[in-house]
From TrEMBL:
Organism: Larkinella bovis
Keyword Cell cycle applies: no
Protein family: Belongs to the TerC family.
Disulfide bond among keywords: no
Membrane topology: Multi-pass membrane protein
Keyword list, A-Z: Membrane, Transmembrane, Transmembrane helix
The protein, known as: TerC family protein
Source organism, top-level taxon: Bacteria
Length: 236
């Protein structure tokens, strides 16, 4: 296929991968807050960088990845494939982590959620990031294969997306850290993504457009609330 014919699919795939990558950035940013300030950027860069390596490696195993759509077993009339099992476990993991973080921040406060960090903390948090990276990577690779045929387009989209994520990770993390209400909202976003992964693993199709539109609307409402509450507080 001529290069010019791949421009639109490449751009579309980059946009889609970037949108999916925002979930990764939010998750990594919230986990990074558990570390000392001098290690937070390190976790973000390692997490995003290793996600690129993981996706590039999975692209080299496309034949195996596509076999994950084959049914492994049936539960209550629902076909469970390798992909579905990974999405189910990843979604449940994300729901657990999001719910736990929301509870700590809403009920116990930030101080209770900041235990003393030992030398294994960075490693443990990086492992959690890689678990979620694996889930999102397999989902995005299967989506990419369904959109384009050229392997170089997929590789290019992954590399460009990771560069965008690296650039955007610090501003997004800084914004979330400065605005506690947005931190709770971000955790709620991750909760929604976790539930959508579980639904997808059970073959319940929830259009991603609906999910991201509702998230964007909730974000807009929070921005409006922040802009209207601040002037009142400054006047008082």
């Amino acid at each position: 296929m001529p290069f010019a014919d791949n421009i639109v699919p490449l751009f579309t795939l980059i946009v889609l991968e970037t949108i999916l990558g925002i979930d990764n950035i939010i998750f990594i940013s919230i986990l990074a807050d558990k570390l000392p300030p001098d290690q937070r950027d390190r976790l973000r860069y390692w997490g995003i960088g290793l996600s690129m390596v993981m996706r590039l490696a999975l692209l080299a195993l496309i034949a195996w990845i596509m076999q994950l759509d084959q049914t492994l077993f049936v539960v209550a009339g629902i076909d469970i494939s390798g992909k579905g099992l990974i999405l189910l476990l990843g979604g449940l993991f994300l729901i657990y982590k999001s719910t736990k973080e929301i509870y700590h921040k809403a009920e116990l406060g930030d101080d209770a959620n900041a235990p003393a960090m030992d030398k294994s903390s960075f490693r443990d948090l990086l492992i959690q990031v890689l678990i979620l990276d694996l889930v999102f990577s397999i989902d995005s690779i299967i989506t990419a294969v369904g959109m384009v045929d050229e392997l170089w387009v997929m590789y290019t989209a992954v590399i460009v997306t990771v560069v965008i994520m690296l650039i955007a990770s610090r501003p997004i993390a800084t914004f979330i850290a400065r605005h506690p209400s947005f931190k709770i909202l971000a955790l709620c976003f991750l909760l929604i993504i976790g539930m959508s992964l579980v639904a997808e693993g059970l073959h319940v199709v929830i259009p991603k457009g609906y999910i991201y539109f509702s998230m964007a609307f909730a974000f807009l409402v929070d921005v409006i609330q922040m802009k209207t509450v601040r002037p009142k507080q400054s006047q008082s």
